[in-house]
Amino acid sequence: MSGEFEPNIVGFACNWCSYAGADLAGTSRMKYPPNIRIIRVMCSGRVSPAFILEAFQMGADGVLVTGCHPGDCHYIAGNLKCEKTMETTGKLIDVLGIGKERLRLEWVSASEGSKFANVVTDFTNHIRGLGPLSGKSQG
Amino acid sequence: MNSEAIVKETRAYHCLECGVCTSSCPVARVNPSFSPRLLVEKALFGFGDEIVRDRDLWSCLVCGRCTSRCPSNVDYLSFIKEMRIEASKLGEKGLFSHDGILNTIMELQSLNLRQKRTFWITDDLEVADEGEYFYFVGCLPYFDLVFGEGGYCDVGLKPTDRARNTVRILNKMGIKPVVSNDERCCGHDLLWNGDLEGFRRLAELNLKTIKKSGAKKVICLCPEGYVTLKRDYPLYLGEQDLEVVQLYQLLADELEGGRLNFVENGSDNPVKVTFHDPCSLGRMAEIYEEPREILSGIPGIELVEMERNRADALCCGTSGWVNCSSCSKQIQIERLKEAEATGADILLVACPKCGIHLSCAKYNSDIKIDIKDITDLIVRAMA
């Protein structure tokens, strides 16, 4: 066990833009923190509040959702649906005491490998600053 | 799995195979493959393994109609509860509705997180941090976020209205109740979905919070919360030095003693209302008359009964957020039609979950009857 806190971050990335963006970051050998575990979803609109709550319940310190830029959604408006869902989920996790600052939504296109790396780096540092989710069942 | 202990504990060996349970069961009426009698029979013949793997184990609404009518006094509710606890140990569970979001919300509350669940309190409400009375709010704040405007399952409801109504009523009685951010889900759904450990964790945290506030009396509006705190907390965590009261009992006493009066609500024509007895308030807690006494005390209200009322009342069709199916919808529509047939303008509910389930069914139908909580009328009639 090293002294410094290393956050667990769950990332949801849409198949058509953000996952390809993450791939580009990888194939371009851009460095970003290894704290994130990416789950591919067909569309960011598929991300249900239940997924996010379950991630926190299972030990995540932060959840990052990434999708296509508005207007670029493969399914026309899935990302806009996601934006709405994130707003209400933010309220929900705030009331639960997790804090909405532990959830972030970002738009990353397939060509934005560097943006993906930056977003992950920034979010990981942000969660590292917040510290572990208190009361977490597992360390 | 050995079902013998459960058979003994729930007196299932008294079963006469008469079938009153199955013919009383609202689920069996719409889903003929579901049979409470068959489940008990299986247990009696030692087929416990079959029961715990059966999907139908989770279709039971635990409405208690079979238990209340069984001539042999078989405790069917405990039978289902114990079987589900056994099934959970094997990793079985029901099919959660709404992606399981409500279940996760309950489980998350057993963590040591600082909730902000009192956001619904408005400036006109008087609440305290310490005192004699603890108002156990229950899941209402979370229901607001899930079923309210913009929520994940928006059916246009505002469940926290009930919480505000309750505090208004209590304030009127001169009670300044304790409302705490550290309150947790009561654990009712976890217990009835077989998660005994999860239930215990929540119950212990709640008892700690209540005791810390110095309260000796806990007031519940939610009938499920009431039954859980009053019956199940002592059952699983030992006797507690706490008096658990239901708001309607408290209110009925005040009315009887003449300490509280209702006023005209302004309209000349009496409003016709009908009352849906929640399973947990009726068959579990046997509180049938108090809400009716309160309603009869409100001027300008005429109460008409549905065909099935009090101990015969029909369940609202879903429980514990599991196995909500086309059968549930059929039961709900049946109940709504029964309410409409009385000619009432308003269907009054006394349980937030009944309100949510019936509103959800109404949302997708052409049924017109208004669904309101009983506290809405009470608050309007208080000067």
Features of the shown structure:
heterodimer; A: 139 residues; alpha/beta; Rossmann fold; 4-stranded parallel beta sheet; 40% helix; 17% strand; B: 383 residues; Fumarate Reductase Iron-sulfur Protein, Chain B, domain 2; 3-stranded parallel beta sheet; 19 helices
Describe this structure in words.
- The complex is a heterodimer of chains A (139) and B (383).
- With 139 residues, chain A is α/β, with parallel strands linked by helices.
- Chain A is 40% helix and 17% strand.
- Chain A contains four helices and four strands.
- Chain A has a four-stranded parallel β-sheet, sandwiched between helices.
- In chain A, helix 1 links the parallel strand 1 (9-14) and strand 2 (36-41).
- The longest helix of chain A is centred in the middle third of the chain and has 19 residues, at 78-96.
- Chain B is of the alpha/beta class and 383 residues long.
- Chain B has three domains: 4-89, Alpha-helical ferredoxin (Fumarate Reductase Iron-sulfur Protein, Chain B, domain 2, Orthogonal Bundle), CATH 1.10.1060.10; 98-252, Rossmann fold (3-Layer(aba) Sandwich); 261-381, Rossmann fold, CATH 3.40.50.
- Chain B contains 19 helices and seven strands.
- Chain B has helices spanning 4-9, 20-24, 26-30, 36-44, 48-53, 65-69, 76-89, 101-108, 140-147, 160-172, 188-192, 196-212, 223-237, 247-256, 280-284, 289-297, 326-341, 352-363, 374-381, and strands at 133-136, 217-220, 243-246, 271-276, 301-303, 346-349, 370-373.
- In chain B, strands 5-4-6-7 form a four-stranded parallel β-sheet, with helices on both faces. In chain B, strands 1-2-3 form a three-stranded parallel β-sheet.
- In chain B, helix 13 links the parallel strand 2 and strand 3 (243-246).
- In chain B, helix 10 (160-172) packs parallel to helix 19 (374-381) and helix 14 (247-256) crosses helix 16.
- The model of chain B has no long low-confidence stretch (mean pLDDT 95).
- At the A-B interface, helix 2 and helix 3 of A face helix 8 and helix 9 of B.
